Sequence to fold (604 residues):
Amino acid sequence: MASAVTSSSPQLRSTRSGSPLQNAWRRLCSNKLAVFCMILLSVIILACVFGPLVLSNPNAQDLELGATPPSAEHWFGTDTLGRDLLARSLVGGRLSLLVGLVATTVALLIGVTYGMVAGYRGGRTDSVMMRIVDVLYGFPFLIFVILLTTIFERSIYLLFAAIGAIEWLTMSRIVRGQVLGLREMEFVKAAQVLGQGTPQILFQHLLPNVLGPVIVYTTLTVPGVMLLEAVLSFLGLGVQPPDASWGVLINEGAQSMETYPWLLMFPAIMFSLTLFCLNLIGDGLRDAFDPRSEK
Amino acid sequence: MIGFFVRRLIQAVVVILAVFTVTFIMVRLAPGGPFSKERTAPPEVVAAMEEYCGLSDPPVVQYFRSIGMMLRGDLGPSYIYEGRTVNELIATAFPLSLTVGFAAFVIAILIGLPLGILAAVRRNSLTDYLAMGGSMLGICLPTFVLGPLLALVFGVWLNWFNASGWYDGSDWVLPALTLGLFYAAYIARLARAGMLDVLSLDYIRTARAKGLDERSVIGKHALKRAILPVISFLGPAFAGLISGSIVIERVFQIPGLGFHFVGAAQNRDYFLAQGTVVFYAVLIVALNLLVDLVQAALDPKTREGKSDD
Fold:
């Protein structure tokens, strides 16, 4: 929406008025690396969403063809079952990105609510709640997720829930820190005096004020979530073949990398590029929302 | 300081107990006991085994018996490795994991810390850009990508090391490097940010103003505070190293603790799964306690119990 102003001269930027979100967006757009990453990420996302519609069936096997190196017909080559790796990489990316998006939303909901309640209540509630977070922080959750996947049917919904339930910790810490500072401000006092309920104060008055940090850490949570999905799929506990995700493809590629290195290379490159973009956009957003932190 | 230590110790016991309880419930909720899909033993042997392991008792009895056994340091028998106890399995597997984990930790600190500090001191120079670019690359190349790549290059193509397995004395190098580089990248970024924060403080300006050379300003005055964020990352990093070792041991086919744990979870080896998790929990809690103590020694604010970050 505010992208029209990106080309304006940089000197004027700081004097422009606008909502904090618009200002942050403007600053983000002046960060060349972040813009480059946003474009690259958009290309990857668009390719994953729309690519499989025009490409051949990613599960179509051609056993006579077998594994072939990249060619004009199969840009990424084919795997041992003769399946087109480009199509599989794109479909896999679709699933990986979907997990990233949904599990992040789960983490976002838990983390923001938990952090807001802790920060707003303060006192003993706060210290107990945050102590719990401290303890959970030091725990290797992968272990519990592995146990979980052995109990329940391995499904993508379990994956969403399990990953989301792990990745909310940092978010809750950040939101809690922000709310702790905000709750003494006049607008919160005013809302309390007016007799508004806690949920209303939390979500109507406090939430908009912590949006900046929340956006930044949401962006930084997505790569963490995608990493976890990939680890689980790599261990054979996440997405199940013949469905593909980047983790599944990397696992398959790693098993035959000595003879068919491209099977590992292409999914790994796509996965790493996506992580790279998300991390750099997150860094860019952090600088954009907090100009003081620019180093 | 002693009060602080005692509080943390009580908390540690609570955490370990909670972890054990959750694991106990989860493992037993899993459909199918360890012998259900068995191809091996005849029914009477299975029944005898189940009787021996006490699986016919009600869960509550099993729960308290397990706790009692653990307090005596007995983690029970393994189902999938016949005739071997969980204690024996952990005793043979853990040294492997420890070797890799410790080497990875040393690599992460030795590479990450100097790199981050150098980048901060020479901010916005080519060194800084190279260091930070490199660390970004490290973060975006997860262990299960970097591991196979290193195995391909140094194991298969150059043939310097075994691409997988645990046979030679040098087999720890590639796994440790894979795991260590990932954390080195994180630590470099934290160290850089920490150092930059400290370098803008007044006491550093004072140190410079009184004519100290840059070396002692950085090394003596700034460093102690700059590594605080790195130290508080170490708790989560230990947890990460353990999770990471599960992946790494899979990538390089090392029969370490993580390797056994995944196998135990998949095969419903109750005692092995539960024993491994409790062992992990004790390890993690002990390491976190250590990190807390180091942190308290370096930073008076933590010592007084203010958990404000």
